[in-house]
Amino acid sequence: MIIFGAGVIGEATLHACRKQDIPIECFVDDRIEGSLLGVPIIRTTEIKSRYPDARFFYLTSPNIHDMILPLRNLGYTGWKSCGDLLKDFDISSIEFKSINGSNQSAKYSTEHVKYLIRTALHHHENYFHPERLTVQSVDLMITEKCTMKCMDCSNLMQYYEHPENADTQDMFEWINALCMKMDEIYEFRVIGGEPFVHKDIHSVVAHVCSIPNVRKVSIFTNATIVPREHQWESMTHEKVRLFITDYDALSRNIRPLVAELDKRGIPYVSETANGWTDCASLEKHNRTVKENEEIWNNCCAKNLATLADGRLYRCPFAANAFKLGAVPDYKDDYIVVEESSREKIRSFLRDKTRIETCNHCNGRSYGDKVITPALQTKIPMKYVKYSRGAA
Q1: Where are the domains of the chain?
Q2: Left (φ > 0), alpha (ψ -120 to 50) or beta: where does 248 sit?
Q3: Burial class of 376 by CB neighbour count within 10 A (0 to 12, 13 to 18, 19+)
Q4: Which of the following CATH numbers is that of domain 131-360: 3.40.50.720, 3.40.190.10, 3.20.20.70, 3.30.43.10?
Q5: What is the pLDDT of residues 134-188, one digit of tens each?
Q6: What pLDDT band is residue 389 in, cutting at 50, 70 and 90?
Q7: Best label site of 41, 212, 270, 297, fewest CB within 10 Å?
Q8: What is the pLDDT of residue 13?
Q9: Which of 321, 348, 362, 352 is nearest to 155 (CA)?
Q10: How many angstroms separate the CA atoms of 250 and 254, rounded?
Q11: Angle between helical axes of 110-127 and 8-19 (0-180°, round to 10)
């Protein structure tokens, strides 16, 4: 028996297995090396040669399909959701070692680990009900403006010469149009740029929280801005959680921000910036269809749908590359939400094997070489701009 995923949910699964005297041979994970609590970690490519007769794989990622597909391709059929073990398992006394695998600097509270487990089990449950139209995560891009100018920003903020905030009323219309056609959006991720630059962020957060079929609202910040007094109330809603990326000296207001969050009892996670890869260049690679499908299959961002300017994209890179005019107008790489039926949205979210914009991206694969995060540029980065209609 093997656990697929050596992050914090995989570690919880191992504890649950040991509680029931279920022997685990190894973890499978393409991001983490070595071992965890004495159990070796191997790569996906090693499974077949080392464990051809593995009986079961306990799947631990919220993106359960991304684990099932490679197992099917390798000829394995014996897999289970970790929910079978974790649904009623008490993790309160466990001191976690993996720290979610990819970010050893994070200090996850027991409450946040429980949140991660609940999230994974919820998505596993949705997987077994494909008739429902659900999406795990939608990035809501409320601004192109940022208080930093990271030359390797994977969301391409470093290329904007005249960044703008999205119009608040327009955003309400886009959000409503999408939510009306979905059975559930598990999480809206409020992003930028730096989302606290937008003076109406509190109104946007409050609006999203008020929608019944939205379960969670996450705000991603670089801790350079502390919200004003009138903006805090919306963030005390039970759906809201903040995710802080700590850029050391660049995150100049992290202490007062955290103090306000603690005072108001708002859940948050603070992680030191790391794990950046070279995926921010804008150039056409002239790959084959098969090569672009491989880029897509290995991408860590392909499950992050992005809502911007009334269009739904499959990743934030594609959304911003289009907004910048850095790619041609690839009509199949996005859908206009108000004009799209449920079935069109379903197909767009579930049936893609690549997007044309993949051909302009270096890719964001787990295991890519890590680069120094948050190197700053004083002026916007240069890129080739396409005239719309060019192919």
Answers
A1: 2-123, 131-360
A2: left
A3: exposed
A4: 3.20.20.70
A5: 999 999 999 999 999 999 999 999 999 999 999 999 999 999 999 999 999 999 9
A6: low
A7: 212
A8: 97
A9: 321
A10: 9
A11: 90
Spatial distance between the Cα atoms of 72 and 23, rounded to a whole number of angstroms: 23
Q: Is 257 helix (H, G, I), strand (E, B) or coil?
A: helix
The CATH number of the domain covering residues in 2-123: 3.40.50.20
Could you say which DSSP state residue 337 is in? G
Measure the CA–CA gap between 92 and 95, rounded to whole angstroms: 8
Contacts 24+ apart (CB under 8 A), 71-80: 71/4, 74/47, 74/48, 75/48, 76/47, 78/54, 79/4, 80/56
Q: How far apart are CA 82 and CA 319, in angstroms?
A: 33
Report how far residue 182's alpha carbon sits from residue 174's, in angstroms, rounded to the nearest whole number: 13
Distances (CA, A) of 270 to 12, 105, 124, 155, 242: 21, 9, 26, 20, 8
Determine the length of the chain: 391
Is the pTM above the cut of 0.70? yes
Under a CB-based contact definition with an 8 Å cutoff, are residues 254 and 270 in contact? yes
- Burial label, 27 (beta-carbon count in 10 A; 0-12, 13-18, 19+): buried
CA angle, corner 164, sides to 254 and 253, nearest 5? Answer: 10
Cα–Cα distance between 325 and 135 in angstroms, integer?
Answer: 27
Prior bond of 193 cis (ω within 30°):
yes
State the Rg of the chain over Cα.
21
CA 391 to chain centre: 29
User: DSSP readout, 347-384?
Assistant: HHHHS-S--GGGGGS---BTTPPB--TT-B-SSPPP-P
Query: 141: helix, coil or strand?
Result: strand
Helix then strand count (H, E) for the chain reads 12, 14
Q: At what angle do helices 168-181 and 342-350 cross, to 10 degrees?
A: 90
- Is residue 23 a contact partner of residue 1, using CB atoms and an 8 Å limit? yes
